[in-house]
Amino acid sequence: QVHLVESGGGLVQPGGSLRLSCAAVGSILNLNAVGWYRQPPGKERELVAGIDSDGRTIYSDSVKGRFTISRDNAKNTGHLQMNSLKSEDTAVYYCNMRISEYEGEADYWGQGTQVTVSS
To answer: How far apart are CA 3 and CA 91, in angstroms?
Structure first.
């Protein structure tokens, strides 16, 4: 019933910026938490940033100070602002949301969006 739609990925030069967006579509009572994960080529998926219902945030050490996670509860949307991008940030980025529905709570994944940092 609920699915996530990601956008904002693309090709950017080192030092550049991108803003990823993730919109939840469906019957949603509450957006409880938003997380952004990434999977570089040949590596496991890892947590990049997260934000809970109280607005508390966490970041991986590799992106701390460069990335900012945010949420817009009125629009059921999450964002990841990525600044000072490095080649090692190249990965497929996935949005994850913990959503309260009428039937209960469930986690959903976006389809993934490619971020490539290259000169």
So the answer is: 21
